[in-house]
TrEMBL record:
It comes from the Eukaryota. This is Ig-like domain-containing protein. The chain crosses the membrane at residues 287-308. Pfam families: C2-set_2, Ig_3. Residues 200-292 form the Ig-like domain. The keyword Methyltransferase does not apply. Its main location: membrane. It is a single-pass membrane protein. Keywords: Disulfide bond, Membrane, Transmembrane, Transmembrane helix. InterPro entries: CD80_C2-set (IPR013162), Ig-like_dom (IPR007110), Ig-like_dom_sf (IPR036179), Ig-like_fold (IPR013783), SIGLEC (IPR051036). Residues 323-339 have a biased composition (Polar residues). Residues 319-339 are annotated as: Disordered. It comes from Mya arenaria (Soft-shell clam).
Length: 339
């Protein structure tokens, strides 16, 4: 004759079965009641537990099993049998010292995931934080390195989504979410970098200070601050102000370098960056052509020598004029005697 009784702690059950058979001259004695279960009221994953199932007295020893709903727990248990001399009956004791997440109804988050949601909008971005497998629901909080951090929040079960207005200065800033969960002391946190769609903004840098002499190797670098990256094109304008085939084209890039050798003719250069959200250009950059340092030095020496010669000649003329004036102003000796 089989009898089954169940016990419940949270979502866990247990049962015992007394199997009828003859043992010598002794008669079978069925358990006189269900097994007794002792355990903590809250069973938390990762903590050591002590779940003890004790049968009532019977003969032969009752068989004890731990079950969750209708499924037998697949784990090792510590089983012992106690024999009572006075009654000739047996008491079975089974102990469980480990606990798995799927057995209980209170567990911390297994992971905390944060992600920027691409909304395809240049001014609004959404960020989502999810506390996976948490029970009960966790309280999710937000922080950021953005100077003025204002947002609209949509709370859900273990999921929090925020919407915020962003500008270029917010790009690359850090956003942090943390989960505070009932019954658990540890606080989980995770962070991400704020990346959102934006059209290019172009900046130009030169490898040398202008003006430069002819036949100088010069590198023009175009920086395109955009997300995602797009295409960058360098174009040139010559005397008739018509675009030429000279230039550089960079695909899916954030920088594009145009290397050139200057000539004795001034030229204009323009950088254009374009992605799926817009475009920007540098405007035309004039490359001023100067003279070489050697020629400049000779010109300076020539100018200095000319200035020195001019000053010497001017001084000599001044001295000659002063001599002539002195001679005109002094009376002769004869004229003085006559007076």
């Amino acid at each position: 004759m089989d009898k089954t009784h169940k016990w419940r702690i949270g979502t866990s059950y247990g049962r015992y079965v007394s199997i009828s058979k003859s043992i010598g001259q002794l008669e079978n004695v069925n358990p006189n009641g269900p097994p007794n279960i002792s355990a903590n009221e809250e069973l938390l994953e990762g903590e050591t537990v002590d779940i003890t199932c004790t049968s009532s007295s019977a003969r032969p020893p009752p068989l004890l099993k731990f079950l969750v709903e209708a499924t037998e727990i697949d784990t090792n248990t510590n089983v012992s049998t106690i024999y009572e001399d006075s009654t000739g009956l047996y008491t079975s004791v089974s102990k469980l010292h480990s606990f798995k997440r799927e057995w209980g109804n209170k567990n911390p988050p297994s992971r905390l995931i944060i992600a920027v949601i691409d909304q395809g909008n240049l001014s609004t971005t959404a960020v989502r934080c999810s506390a996976l497998d948490s029970n009960p629901v966790c309280n999710i909080k937000w922080e950021s390195s953005i100077e003025v951090f204002r947002y609209t929040i949509l709370p859900q079960s273990n999921i929090s989504t925020i919407w915020l207005n962003v500008t270029d200065v917010d790009y690359g800033k850090q956003i942090n979410c943390s989960a505070e969960c009932p019954h658990f002391l540890n606080v989980l946190s995770n962070s991400t970098i704020l990346i959102f769609a934006k059209k290019p903004k172009v900046e130009i840098r030169l490898s040398s200070v202008l003006p430069v002499p002819p036949n100088t190797n010069l590198a023009l670098t175009c920086f395109a601050n955009a997300y995602p990256n797009g295409n960058i094109t360098w174009t040139t304008l010559k005397a008739p102000n018509a675009p030429t085939s000279d230039g550089e084209f960079c695909v899916n890039a954030s920088t594009c370098i145009y290397e050139m050798t200057t000539s004795d003719v001034e030229q204009e250069y323009n950088c254009i960056a374009k992605n799926a959200h817009g475009s920007d250009n540098s405007g035309f950059l004039d490359i001023a052509i100067g003279i070489s340092s050697g020629i400049a030095f000779l010109l300076i020496i020539t100018v200095v020598m000319c200035l020195c010669r001019y000053h010497i000649q001017a001084k000599n003329r001044k001295e000659d004029n002063q001599t002539e004036m002195a001679q005109l102003q002094s009376p002769t000796v004869a004229e003085s005697d006559g007076t």
